[in-house]
Amino acid sequence: MNMRASPIFMALIATFLSCMVLFSGKPAEGIIGINWGRQSSQRMIPSMVVDLLLQNEIQEARIFTAADNVMAAFSGSGIGLSISLSNFVLHVINSSTVAEEWIQNSVTKFRSQNVDIRYVNVGVEPFSTTFTNKTYDNAVDVLKLIQNALNNAGYGDIVKATIPHYSDVLKQGIMKPSEADFRDDIKAKMVEYLKFLRENNAPAMIDIYPIHYCRENDLDPDFAFFDKKSKFFVLDDNGLNYTNAFDFLYDSFYWAMRKAGTPDLRLVVGQVGWPTDGYPNANTTYAERFYKDLLPYVIGNKGTPLHPGMPIDVYIHSLSDENRLGIWYGGFQRHWGIYTSDGQPKFKIDLSGKGRDIFPTTAKGITHMPKRWCIFNEDMSDMDIIKDEFDKACYNSDCSSLEPGGSCSHLSFKQNVSYAFNRYFQVKQQRIHEKACNFQGLGKVVPDDPSTGTCIFPIEILAAESADRGAPFLGINGDQFIRVSLLAMLLPLLSFFLISNSINVELFTK
Ligand SMILES: *[C@@H]1O[C@H](CO)[C@@H](O)[C@H](O)[C@H]1NC(C)=O
Ligand SMILES: *[C@@H]1O[C@H](CO)[C@@H](O)[C@H](O)[C@H]1NC(C)=O
Ligand SMILES: *[C@@H]1O[C@H](CO)[C@@H](O)[C@H](O)[C@H]1NC(C)=O
Ligand SMILES: *[C@@H]1O[C@H](CO)[C@@H](O)[C@H](O)[C@H]1NC(C)=O
Ligand SMILES: *[C@@H]1O[C@H](CO)[C@@H](O)[C@H](O)[C@H]1NC(C)=O
Hints:
Number of domains: 2
Mean pLDDT: 86
CATH superfamily of the largest domain: Glycosidases
CATH class of the largest domain: Alpha Beta
Number of helices: 12
Strand content: 5-15%
Bound molecules: 2-acetamido-2-deoxy-beta-D-glucopyranose
CATH topology of the largest domain: TIM Barrel
Largest sheet: 9 strands, parallel
Strand order of the largest sheet: 5-4-3-2-1-11-10-7-6
CATH architecture of the largest domain: Alpha-Beta Barrel
């Protein structure tokens, strides 16, 4: 069990699978991939992560930042890779020359180093209005430039560009999948997108978050699961029944595609998962329950009510927690990981889809900082200073677990302050001499773990910056020209963020 699969064997499998794709236009069976974002104060070294993926029999991965050292780790691994262009760089790709240059530096360069890049994701939910009010209307133009550049470089058959969309590209408030259609404001763009995909034999992509869908639409939370415990279900949508949000949304997207004149496209699920903190029903029990049925369902090629037996590819969201993601929409955004950010599995999940009752393998070679914590000394004489220091500590670290529904939402005020101080202390790599546990004299370092009940006071991993050089700016790699001109363009915005918010600039990628 959990033997490390040999890279050669994996490469053979990958070759076999890509041949199947070429010959049939569809994969032989549903594939379980995983998203790996790195917007975290503590990061696993890329080679550790690739090792983790191989041990867990993961065949495909999607990354958001394509640093050279990250790409190098995937070289020869046999893992199919999806790379991403973040929303914030879409406007830079404004001509075929720039697109070709980007493909040269992001695809050709790494494919020649034996990195099996298969998809380019153009933007991240660029038409979504749920998590932000800003949409990126040129995404389809960029998609065309990118796929055309891929075709010109001779990759037309093996590397496909697509755009991952959130389910809010569909009109809200439908009661049956057959009622689904695209939102009026983006309908023309969606039709253009789908027709272009069809011409290039590329798949459409949808991100599905059942936990939100049920909450946003006031549905029975059990409808988010596959175990048919929901009091809400849909009967007789043209003879079909729906007992879970995944099937419901997937088939809704197909209905909208059908109405757009492209009923026969392949539809890949770019993100699907369950957060474990910072939101009602977001915990490890429910995450385990969700994946327990989802993954065997994918591997079993059961298909959906509308397409029984059709293979569905899904990318699990995500590999590990990212405590530097923006939390405009809620603290749970930092808790999508199957693993904590230090590589510990949070719950049982069989990533191969075989449904075994197992924990996934733990990351190897992780070194934690010493067992010491920074807590509040409980001097309550000046509440203003306490609140101020609490806010600053949270702002510069991660207090999302304190939010209602979170694993630490039951703490007392004093424990709250200790929690915040400790998070800051750990993010600052326990640097006592640099006042990482000062807080105007309110902090003290202790050797005993202050964790209580469900609330863990974490210790971060030893920074591995020398081994992991970090991702270059904004998820585009290699291309000095783009990086420099982008930097110039974004400098005013960037300095605003750096001043108002010391969160890592990588938050721009989502
Ligand atoms: C593309 O953007 C660059 C930088 O903003 C600009 O100088 C150039 O004129 C644009 N090209 C086109 C074809 O719009
Ligand atoms: C988006 O705009 C609407 C209406 O202007 C507003 O109600 C909503 O809060 C905004 N959402 C975000 C995430 O900013
Ligand atoms: C849908 O549910 C109804 C009522 O339970 C049942 O009679 C029917 O056979 C179901 N249809 C399918 C396709 O499963
Ligand atoms: C997870 O949430 C569910 C529903 O809110 C609850 O019944 C269950 O006890 C929770 N599990 C844990 C470990 O907190
Ligand atoms: C602890 O902090 C959280 C997040 O700021 C807040 O919602 C909660 O009310 C605080 N609890 C107490 C007892 O002050």
